[in-house]
Amino acid sequence: MNIPLFTLPGGIHPPEHKSASVQEPIGQLPLPPYLYIALAQHMGAPAKALVNPDQRVLKGQLIAEADGVFSVNIHAPTSGYIRSIEDYPQAHPSGLLAPCILLETDGQDEWVERHPITDYASLAPADLLERIRKAGIAGLGGAGFPTAIKLNPRSTAPIDTLIINGAECEPYITADDVLMRERADEVIAGTLMLGYVLHNPARLVIGVEDNKPEAIAALQKAAAGTPVEVVGFPTKYPSGGAKQLTWILTGREIPHGHHSADAGVICLNVATVAAAWRAVRFDEPLISRITTLAGDALAQSRNVEVLIGTPIDTLLQHQGLQPKQLSRLVVGGPMMGFTLTDTRAPVTKTTNCLIAAGKKELPLPPPAQACIRCGYCADVCPASLLPQQLFWYAQAEDHDRLKSHHLFDCIECGACSWVCPSTIPLVQYYRAAKGSIIQAETEKEKAERSRRRFEFRQQRMEQEEAAKEAKRLARKQAADEARLKLAQKAELHTNTTEPANPVITATSTKAAADNGVDQRARLERILAAAHNTLEHAQKPLVPHVYGEEISAEKLEKQQARIKQAALKVSEAEKKLADFMASQQGATAQAVVSPADDAIERARAKMARNPREKLEAGLETLQKQLLKAQERAATARANGEPTADAFERGVAVLQQKIATTREDLAALPADSVNAVATIEEQQATETAIEKARQRLAEKAEKSPADIRAEQRQTLTVRLEKTRVLLQDAEAKGAPTVTALAASLQRLQEKLNTLQSDD
């Protein structure tokens, strides 16, 4: 099958140095006495140790679990005893120490209980993905990205192509080459399995550079009769980059700030695919890997399968290291690798190559000279960047221009440094600039989080102060009402023909005026707090990591908060406007007895005809429906458990409104002039007379007796409401929310009475 290929821009052709390490099959290393298993050997957070000193572990047992999403599990490479968990040298460019689990091997190589699977299709894709995650599979091509995360992309684009990367373009490295030659069946089986995990994309492609004819032939033989395509393409460095390989095989360009999944492509290394296959088929976690050992300072160059945690000096001694000929030890390839200064460092999941270079093999570069602006670096850049501009901006520490020139699109392949006639270590400048930008963004994010925490604390303190002030005003209002009632009581005891007591009148008027002023101030504070909450909710979201997109879930939650805050602002404005209107109408009136006012309202209600009564009830029901719909919408947007109860309440109100409208339509035409019957009038007058008698009896009681009677009444009502609420919750009635609110109001009234005592 002729598959169209696309030419990689830029690139170079450095000496390959691959033939020496592929002359022998994959070798095995004797079991070392100690293994130093690093907790940070992958991209993301270090794993969290689960074992203790002197604890015996079995081969394949989980000894450190992933600490977060971007982290992977770590398992014991063999059986033995945990001796310590301490800092140890690491195979890392920083040269810093990092925590390691020291495992003393017991030589028994005893496996933990395993559960192999013969037919992966018997499990759901999500179950296979979970097995891969538990096995601690990370990218074996060098990046160490958690494989389970890559196989479960957040991109909304459908995945139609799975690319298996067998390019291995870096000089010296042949670990993937020998894997494809000797274990092609595992690579093909793993490709088919991962295609099933990704819900069967249209294309399954294995891309291999044409300088590996034996590997291509082995893969084509194993892929016969399967939908897997094995594609050979011209050798050019760095064709093994994920974005570069995606372009070569599909012609799709990955935009700045995006990943290959956004273009519908998932790209995985061949060794990662084989490890994922073994994790599912044999329940074998990632505890070993194939590593290339090459260089003139070794007696023999070859590929060996080595346990994770094996000290590098043990590995080199096994291959006959000649210290007198050693110039430097490079981890990785000569283009993207780094020099290792401490050979005690252990092998990790990303250690794909060790080059023990002779004194003439990888000589140290001469001192850098000034840039002559030749443009060679721009010609060979596979990402089509401007390396010389990035170099100048990196020297000037101009972060803004570095980002505008897409510094983070640089894959650090080293092609620019390779061709630079001034021997400028360009990649080192880029790495340092990236680290500086990331550190600055991290500090900026920390400062932003501190600012948000401070603002939230200030808002919380203001709300607490507003709540305290509201309680104080409530107590003051209750005291003012008590003084007003005393004044009314004194007025009831006086003769109606006697002139009014000026002291009582003044006290009543002042209490009412003070109450109005305090009420207005409280409503204005509530409105200001609501506006503050709305402004805070409308602030744009800031990602925790530079370059990370805000998720749709966070945006939906922000919209819900904005809607709820706007609703509270509207309610506060309406309450303040209603209060101001009531105050304006009350300024022209004298202080009226609450009892007399209630009697007048009862008589006015009695004077209304049946149509007016139904219309008034319909208006009340419509107002209640509007509030209930707002509450239900807010609860549903916030995911509150009371959303269903609110919606049932809305349905009940809608039914009542429909019934009231039917009653209005059924009234006769002459109902407008109808008046209450004699029986209704007599019942109303009787109720009014009883209310007056109760008021007179209450006036004769002392304030202490009145409060005691009120407490008793509230206690009885509180208990009845609690019983009704429990019954409604058991039956799932729509009145649960209303009863809960009523119970809360009664409890607050009772607490206020008890605090006044």
Automatic annotation (TrEMBL):
UniProt keyword terms in alphabetical order: 4Fe-4S, Cell inner membrane, Cell membrane, Coiled coil, Electron transport, Iron, Iron-sulfur, Membrane, Metal-binding, Repeat, Translocase, Transport
Cited Gene3D superfamilies: 3.30.70.20, NADH-ubiquinone oxidoreductase 51kDa subunit
InterPro entries in the cross-refs: 4Fe4S_Fe-S-bd, 4Fe4S_Fe_S_CS, Ion_transpt_RnfC/RsxC, Nuo51_FMN-bd, Nuo51_FMN-bd_sf, RnfC_N
Recorded topology in the membrane: Peripheral membrane protein
Textual note on the cofactor: Binds 2 [4Fe-4S] clusters per subunit.
Gene Ontology terms: cellular component: plasma membrane
Residue numbers binding [4Fe-4S] cluster 1: C371, C374, C377, C420
EC number(s) stated in the UniProt entry for this protein: 7.-.-.-
GO BP term, pick one: electron transport chain
Coiled coil regions, renumbered to chain: 430-481, 555-582, 611-638, 681-756
Gene Ontology MF annotations: 4 iron, 4 sulfur cluster binding; electron transfer activity; metal ion binding
Domain 4Fe-4S ferredoxin-type residue range list: 361-391, 400-429
Domain of life (superkingdom): Bacteria
UniProt cofactor(s): [4Fe-4S] cluster
Subcellular localization(s) per the UniProt record: Cell inner membrane
Positions that bind [4Fe-4S] cluster 2: C381, C410, C413, C416
PROSITE patterns reported in the protein's UniProt record: 4FE4S_FER_1, 4FE4S_FER_2
Physiological role: Part of a membrane-bound complex that couples electron transfer with translocation of ions across the membrane.
Subunit structure: The complex is composed of six subunits: RnfA, RnfB, RnfC, RnfD, RnfE and RnfG.
Recorded family membership: Belongs to the 4Fe4S bacterial-type ferredoxin family. RnfC subfamily.
Protein name: Ion-translocating oxidoreductase complex subunit C
Organism, as annotated: Cellvibrio polysaccharolyticus
